[in-house]
Amino acid sequence: MPPGRAPHRQLLRDPKSAAEALRHGLLHRADAERCLAERTYLAALAENPSLPADLVERLAVDPDEDVRLAVSVRPELDETRRMAIDFTVGYLDRGEGVQWVRDGLADPDVLRRAATSAHPLLRRTAARSPHLPPDLLLLLARVEDPVVEDCLGIHHPDTPEEVLMRVYARLGSTFSAWMAETHPRFPREGLAARYADHPDGHYRRLAVRDPAATPTLIERLSHDPTVWTRQEAAGDPRLPLHRLREALHVPELASSAAANPALPEDEMAAVLDRAGVPA
Asked: What is the pTM of this model?
């Protein structure tokens, strides 16, 4: 047995380590052919960089969709060969991204190759990079893929406003909306005019973020039917003082109102006293 083969064989025999050994280890053809014959760990095998080219071609037409997908993201394939493989990509497929692209998120050549590919998984992984140059950022911003948009919103400091608003449109009623709302390029100006009377309360909440929103509007939104909108307004320093004092005694608004920086210091102290917080 060649030197170093025994430890590798031990990894292949252990179900806990076999897949990773086949995915990343130095591959011996006999081991690869045995997996093919037994149809075991084929999706992992399909990712191995040392898999012989003829076996790559066999796996590219394998009846298992996961195996074909794994072959389709191999780095040595050109775009024509990659897209000739019959694969499908779901919303949650490979949430961790494609490894060779992840390893090159700061490499201009890798980013360009992945971002300009027609393969959704390569584009999604490229969208994780904060180093995308402007042309590739704009290219990915035009891709109609929610996963690409989410990744841009999380990772790129210059994500266009329209992408962030599309992310918000999908996620505004969920906790995950933070990825759009907390982005430094998320729009603020003009939100009051656009959304104060929107039929969806999650959009009315955005009106509070507008620097031009008036105290009258903030007060109105503090009575909004949607609790998240009321809470946003209750924490805004433009809220008139009489309404801020009222909000302190409304259970779902009290926390936001107590954190409002416009609350006078003596009333802040009174809130702490009522909560039993020592001075």
From this structure: 0.81
Q: Is 40 helix (H, G, I), strand (E, B) or coil?
A: coil
Average pLDDT over residues 183-193: 94
The tokens for 16 are: 């806990």
Gap between the Cα atoms of 144 and 231, Å rounded: 33
Which range among 27-36, 45-54, 225-234 shows the weakest confidence by mean pLDDT?
A: 27-36
Least Cα distance to 10 among 1, 21, 2 occurs for 21
Average pLDDT, the chain: 90
Which backbone phi and psi does 67 adopt, to 5 degrees?
Answer: -70, -45
Q: Which two tokens stand for residue 205?
A: 């909440």
Alpha carbons 241 and 253: distance in angstroms, whole number: 14
Which residues neighbour 168 within 8 Å (Cβ) at sequence distance 6 or greater? 177, 180, 181, 186, 206
Q: What is the pLDDT of residue 279?
A: 58
In contact, 175 and 203? CB cutoff 8 Å: no
- The C-alpha atoms of residue 49 and residue 23 are separated, in whole angstroms, by 8
Closest CA to 162 of 138, 133, 131: 138
| Phi, psi (deg, nearest 5) at residue 144 | -85, 70
132, 111 in Cβ contact below 8 A?
Answer: yes
Q: Sorting pLDDT into bands at 50, 70 and 90, what band is 273?
A: low
Distances (CA, A) of 244 to 42, 43, 224, 239, 273: 63, 59, 14, 6, 18
Using CA atoms of 138, 159, 107, 79 in order, give the dihedral in degrees to the nearest 10.
Answer: -40
Q: List, in order, residues 6 or more apart from 81 with CB less than 8 Å away.
A: none
Contact between 95 and 150 under an 8 Å Cβ cutoff? The reply is no
> What is the Cα–Cα distance from 104 to 173, expressed in whole angstroms?
34
10 pLDDT tier (thresholds 50, 70, 90):
low
Give the Cα separation of 7 and 199 in Å (integer).
64
